[in-house]
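#struct-help
A.M.: can someone run this one for me? Single chain, 138 residues.
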Amino acid sequence: MPDTLITTETYSAKLNAHQLVGSRAVSGGQIFVPPRPIDPQHVTSEMEMIELSGKGTLVSFSIVPVASTEMIAAGYGRDNPHCVGIVRLDEGPSVSAQIIGVDVSRPDSIELGMQMQAEFIERTIGDVTKTILAFRPA
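D.P.: on it. Structure tokens below:
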């Protein structure tokens, strides 16, 4: 059993500290992001929390002109679309996140296979501030 419980709250606390963490199955070594408390393949709770490098490769992306309430509050929408993508981390798992530091007006300038680095963005909605995982070209 790990010293740190693998929960949504723990993951959020690590993001707030600008750390990207995952969980690793003790028996099979598979890594999950966000962390899971149970290895679904071996059906065991023998998991450990690990810190990840935050480095990876862009494997898919989309320019999104329609924004959620949170993204509208951050200034995104039809006149200011944002990019979301899938980044395959150097440690193996893939994670979905906002891609920043790219020219969304020129999607052809965004290249699959480009190296990415995790960024941590503070967003406030009402009285609540959250840290959001994003990636930018390395």
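A.M.: thanks! The longest strand covers residues 115-125.
D.P.: also worth noting: The helical segments are 8-16, 69-73.
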